Structures are given as structure tokens and as C-alpha cells.
Amino acid sequence: MIKSVIKTKEIKLSYDSPKDKYYLDYLLNEQLKTETFYGEYALEEYLSNVLNFNTEDINQLYSKMNLILYR
């Protein structure tokens, strides 16, 4: 059920390279939710186990990810 709600809304994934943190922003029940993950494994576990994303969904999300860099 969560997946169908999220799939109809905007999902934004950002990666903070120096900190190795991923930020997942999405709307759920008209509220903005932000989840923070330390490392790729934690993010993928959440996406597949909690949000029921398959490998194709996860790869598509990575392809549109924002990269945060420090100079």
C-alpha cells in the first residue's frame, strides 16, 4: 500500500558523498517525510523491505539522484 501511495508522488534521493549519507524525501499522506541512511546497504534495505521497491525501481531512483559535494 505504501508503495502505491509513494509512486504517485515525488521522490527525491540525495547523496552526501563526504558523509556517505543518503537522504530520501517523499510525500506520504500529504506530509513530507525525510529518511536518512548511512551507506547504500541501509538505503536499499529500506527501499526493498519497507517500500517494496524492486531492483529496477531502486536503479531508477539512483539514476535521478542528487549528489552533494563539498569544495
The main β sheet shows up as: 4 strands, mixed
Name the structural class. alpha+beta
Oligomer: single chain
Supply the number of helical segments. Answer: 3
Average pLDDT, all residues: 83
Overall spatial form: globular
**What integer value in Å does the Rg equal?**
12 Å
Sequence of secondary-structure elements: HEEEHHE
Total strands: the figure is 4
Question: Can you describe what's shown?
Answer:
This protein is an alpha+beta fold and 71 residues long. It has 3 helices and 4 strands. It has a 4-stranded mixed beta sheet with strand order 3-2-1-4. The protein is globular.
Summarize the structure.
With 71 residues, the chain is α+β, with helices and mostly antiparallel strands.
Keywords:
71 residues, alpha+beta, four-stranded mixed beta sheet, 3 helices, 4 strands, 35% strand, disordered N terminus
Topology overview:
Layout: H1 2-7, E1 11-16, E2 21-28, E3 31-38, H2 40-49, H3 55-63, E4 66-68
Parallel strand pairs: 1-4
Antiparallel strand pairs: 1-2, 2-3
